[in-house]
Specification:
By secondary structure, this protein is of the alpha/beta class. The chain contains six helices and twelve strands. The strands form three sheets. The chain has an eight-stranded mixed beta sheet. A two-stranded antiparallel ribbon has the order 1-2. Strand 9 (197-202) and strand 10 (207-211) form a beta hairpin.
């Protein structure tokens, strides 16, 4: 009788234990799912400032689409920060990802530095805008108040978010970016590249022989900082030369010293030193 009871009850007990184990595992799985959902982060909840002309939601959708990111992020993914950095850097408006702030709960904050428009390029089709490194910005970038490039640009523009293919355009953008803080003070309106040298124009018609792009100066050429300071000093000493009384040429290139003369007496663009 005892043997029969053992043979009968043992399978029942095993089945009961198995059922209890399944129930326990189910509860644990449910708890784990709830915990995962609790710590998951919806991508559209990422907090950041939006670039010019875009709402945050639009910007995040573009970043997510280009990087093929999922709708929800795992906070405990050890590669999450690096993945987010790479994803945001792919957007043409983003110049730098400064830092990513994330906790076990609450929103995720990404601090970004966006590219600054500095140069407007007119040509076939709509006006395109470049940043200080010659990077082509999205078509929605505004050209209002920017220095305008004179002449027909060479080479294809290339994809948005990449440098313009023509080195002359890149040199013009770097110069425009360097002078951006003083653009209004100096009355700058446009620029061109003549014989691989940058030439600036003011709204009153004065011409400024700038020379090489900042950081590309030759041994006999003044630095970009010195050129800028010379021009500011000349404008401060002779403010009337940029008004109705007439246009002047400022040659900032020679390392020995800048020159200033009425535009009608100006030397040929591309020469250095005294006439």
């Amino acid at each position: 009788m005892r043997t029969w009871l053992i043979q009968t009850l043992t399978p029942l007990a095993s089945a009961g234990l198995l059922l209890a184990g399944v129930v326990t595992l189910g509860r644990l799985a449910a708890d784990d799912l709830h915990q995962h959902e609790r710590y998951a982060l919806a991508f559209d909840e990422v907090r950041c400032e939006a670039p010019p002309g875009l709402r945050r939601e639009e910007f995040l959708r573009e970043v997510q689409y280009e990087a093929e990111l999922p709708d929800h992020l795992d906070r405990f993914d050890v590669d999450l920060v690096s993945r987010l950095r790479a994803a945001f850097l792919r957007h043409p408006w983003v110049e730098r990802v400064e830092r990513v702030e994330m906790t076990s709960s609450g929103p995720l904050h990404i601090h970004l530095t966006y590219r600054t428009p500095v140069l407007a390029i007119a040509g076939p089709g709509p006006i395109r805008v470049l940043d200080r490194n010659g990077i082509l910005l999205p078509r929605a970038a505004s050209a209002d108040g920017l220095l305008a490039f004179r002449g027909k640009p060479r080479g294809p523009a290339g994809p948005t978010g990449t440098p313009w293919s023509d080195p002359s355009i890149v040199a013009a953008a770097r110069t425009a970016g360097f002078l951006l803080p003083q653009r209004e003070q100096l009355g700058l309106s446009s620029l061109e590249v003549v014989r691989e040298e940058v030439v600036l124009w003011t709204s009153s018609g004065s011409r400024i022989l700038w020379g090489s792009a900042p950081g590309r100066e030759g041994a006999d050429e003044a630095s970009a900082v010195l050129k800028r300071d010379r021009l500011l000093n000349q404008m401060a000493r002779h403010p009337g030369t940029e008004g109705p009384s007439g246009a002047y040429e400022h040659d900032l290139r020679p390392a020995a010293g800048a020159t200033q003369r009425p535009l009608g007496e100006a030397v040929q663009v591309g020469s250095r030193g005294q006439p």
